[in-house]
């Protein structure tokens, strides 16, 4: 098997004096879609932020394409081809859809053009001149994902993209993630909706108390669904 695209070894992270990760280890291969499952407070979002360099105090090793990320600033990590879509979506309310799309820099060739993004997200095309405050929650999530696709990054860190969305919008987000996987993107997805995650991912990692305690494939998740969801608390 090829070397992992992303490797975490014994990663610890702190918010001030409070330790949030207690030695998390993980491998993600190119083109893989992997989910992080776990209770609130298990460390899932902190793990994504640690990869992205958004946690000041980290220990251990995080390597992307063989390059150590510990010690690098977030903008340097972004320029290596890693993109983060936060759970709060980060839409600038005073800017239009088109202006929000154009904010992040292009870091690599192969990013989607504005025309391609509007074809992929027809709702955004219709709202191109609308301010961020005028978008629905689903439209804001689509914009947040579209914005990182423009950069050319091929590794996507998606933090709870379905949170608070209506079922019909959740289905659309699921279809979009499938399309991105088919296009060869590598995706790490934090998701509370286990039914949603079960239909998408190649592998699932269970996080408990700041560690990855179990990893299983989609077949195992479906076979042991009740037992696994009991551990997650859903």
Short description, anyone?
34% of the residues lie in helices and 27% in strands. It has 234 residues and is an alpha/beta fold. The two termini are 34 Å apart.
Instruction: Give the strand tally.
Output: 10
Helical content (DSSP H or I, runs of 4+): 25-40%
Low-confidence spans:
none
- What Rg, in angstroms, do the CA atoms define? 17 Å
Task: Describe the model.
This protein is of the alpha/beta class. The chain contains ten helices and ten strands. The chain has helices spanning 44-51, 74-79, 97-102, 114-120, 122-126, 137-149, 167-182, 194-198, 218-223, 225-232; strands at 6-15, 18-28, 33-37, 57-64, 67-68, 82-85, 155-159, 186-190, 203-208, 211-217. The strands form two sheets. A six-stranded mixed β-sheet has the order 6-7-8-3-9-10, with helices on both faces. The chain has a four-stranded antiparallel β-sheet with strand order 2-1-4-5, with helices on one face. Strand 9 and strand 10 (211-217) form a beta hairpin.
């Amino acid at each position: 098997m090829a070397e992992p695209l992303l490797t975490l070894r014994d990663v610890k992270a702190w918010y001030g004096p409070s330790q949030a990760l207690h030695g998390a280890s993980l491998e993600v291969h190119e083109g893989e879609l992997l989910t992080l499952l776990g209770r609130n407070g298990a460390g899932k979002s902190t793990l994504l932020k640690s990869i992205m360099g958004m946690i000041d105090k980290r220990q251990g090793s995080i390597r992307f394409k063989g390059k150590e990320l510990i010690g690098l600033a977030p903008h340097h990590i972004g320029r290596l081809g890693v993109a983060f879509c936060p759970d709060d979506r980060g839409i600038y309310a005073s800017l239009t859809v088109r202006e929000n799309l154009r904010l992040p820099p292009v870091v690599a060739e192969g990013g989607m053009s504005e025309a391609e993004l509007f074809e992929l997200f027809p709702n955004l095309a219709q709202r191109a001149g609308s301010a961020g405050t005028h978008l629905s929650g689903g439209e804001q999530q689509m914009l947040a994902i579209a914005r990182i696709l423009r950069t050319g990054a091929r590794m996507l860190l998606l933090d709870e993209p379905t949170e608070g969305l209506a079922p019909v919008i959740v289905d659309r987000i699921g279809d979009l993630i499938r399309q991105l996987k088919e296009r060869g993107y590598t995706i790490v997805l934090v998701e509370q909706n286990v039914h949603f995650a079960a239909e998408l991912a190649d592998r699932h990692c269970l996080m408990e108390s700041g560690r990855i305690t179990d990893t299983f494939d989609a077949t195992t998740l479906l076979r042991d669904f009740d037992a696994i969801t009991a551990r997650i608390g859903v």
